[in-house]
Amino acid sequence: MKRLRLPEQVELLPHVGRWLLLAGLVAVLAGSASALFLLALDWVTGTREAQRWLVFGLPLAGFAVGWVYLKVGRGVEAGNNLLIDEIHDPKNVVPLRMAPLILAGTVISHLFGASVGREGTAVQMGGALADQLTHVFKLRPEDRRILLMAGISAGFASVFGTPLAGAVFGLEVLLIGRLRYDALLPCFTAAIVADQVTTAWGVHHTHYLAGLIPAVSAWTLTAVVLAGIVFGLVGMLFAQATHAGAAVVRRHVGYPPLRPLFGGAAIAVVIWFGDGWRYAGLGIPVIVEAFVQPVPSWDFAAKLGLTVASLASGFKGGEVTPLFFIGATLGNALAPLLQLPLGLLAALGFVAVFAGAANTPLACTLMAMELFGAQIGVYAGLACVVSYLFSGHTGIYRSQRVGHAKHRHTPEGMKLGDVPAYRDRQRAAQDAADAPRQEP
């Protein structure tokens, strides 16, 4: 007897229901964790501003966090890169201790004035908490990949209040040039619900005003392309400087807890004696300022330097909010040169430097529209794409893979961290081929 086949749409219902349930659970976990984190971050930031002498505790705080990670956190120290590696090549469930370790480490870093962000913390908490459902529901490796992506989306969306950007970030950050459409439903569900959960806990996100958005013209488009080139180069500089700085610190300081001890001492001296309070912590007030009035033209460079020093020496947090600071203040400085409204260039820098550094132009375009309104979408899309192209095959996430090369040939599947060595081998081979043959 011929078996009756149900319509595809009916067969799809259990699949959809299953992922709505899983993504919803991930969202509740990640959204609640982000709410706790953001409330703690507000408290420690206020405490640090009221008690500025705390900055002198930065070296000891860094040593303590480094020691704890050395003793119990070695398996999770790779952070976001560990999550990306597990999605590409599933092996072991991410240890649950990643969540409390990164939460405590980031809060302590901010309390004492390290120039770090918050995205890394939210993403790692979201991914680690999501992965705990792997054993509960006995998920296959392929389903586990999607669950981790949903955790990344939920963490990103809830910490910034941008559900669409968060959903696409979880899809886009894994492979340069490619998206995984089989994870669309889980990532969007997790991001949207996680944002609502964080809001339900009473957390409010900072609002930015981009101001007047000029009509599209030949000059505005040209100016945005020029700005996008600069944003991409600065994003590339940030990523390369962070990785190079970390390598130098590791090479010269063998004992991991001593790295943030020495780095924290140098940062504390710069902040206290160099009047660098603008660049401590997240720097949200300066970002807000960059949208409404001119700020010192060196703000972006100072923040870049202190953030590179903080991350390279081992302080916990993330790169994204510092990149927002760098981008907004850089856009502020470029506005009079490009004859565009100050708020517009600050908004474009806010998202485009991050787009170049993280290789996520689509997520950053959506973020601009969520934060500044849909009218900025044309300019944001152009700036983010140009920044993405001009940042080259570099990025803040060394485990990010090449899905489709931007321009120059790069093998598919290669980690960004392996690209420099590949380029060196290519150049060496080309030099050997071009060298004149010696006469016998």
Global outline: globular
Tally of individual domains: 2
CATH topology of the largest domain: Clc chloride channel
CATH architecture of the largest domain: Orthogonal Bundle
Q: What spatial order of strands do you see in the largest sheet?
A: 1-2
The rounded Rg comes to 22 Å
Order of helices and strands: HHHHHHHHEHHHHHHHHHEH
Give the distance, in angstroms, between the N- and C-terminal Cα atoms: 82 Å
Q: Structural class of the secondary structure composition? A: mainly alpha
Instruction: State the helix count.
Output: 18
- Count of individual beta strands: 2
Overall pLDDT, averaged? 94
Level-1 CATH class name of the largest domain: Mainly Alpha
- Quaternary assembly: single chain
Largest sheet: 2 strands, parallel
Low-pLDDT segments, ≥5 res: none
The CATH homologous superfamily of the largest domain is called Clc chloride channel
Into which percent range does the helicity of residues fall? 55-70%
The proportion of residues in beta strands is under 5%
How do you describe this structure in short?
Pfam families: Voltage_CLC. This protein has 18 helices and two strands. By secondary structure, the protein is mostly helical.
Structure description:
The relative contact order is 0.13. The longest helix is centred in the first third of the chain and has 43 residues, at 8-50. The protein is built from 18 helices and 2 strands. It is mainly alpha-helical. It has a two-stranded parallel ribbon with strand order 1-2. Helix 1 (8-50) packs across helix 9 (184-200). It has helices at residues 8-50, 58-72, 80-88, 98-111, 119-131, 133-136, 141-160, 163-172, 184-200, 218-252, 258-273, 284-290, 299-312, 320-338, 342-358, 361-372, 377-390, 419-434, and strands spanning 175-176, 401-402. It has 2 domains: 15-200, Clc chloride channel (Orthogonal Bundle); 218-390, Clc chloride channel (Orthogonal Bundle), CATH 1.10.3080.10. The protein is globular and about 80 Å long. It starts with 7 loop residues before the first helix and ends in a 6-residue tail after the last helix. One of its GO terms (cellular component) is membrane. It is a multi-pass membrane protein.
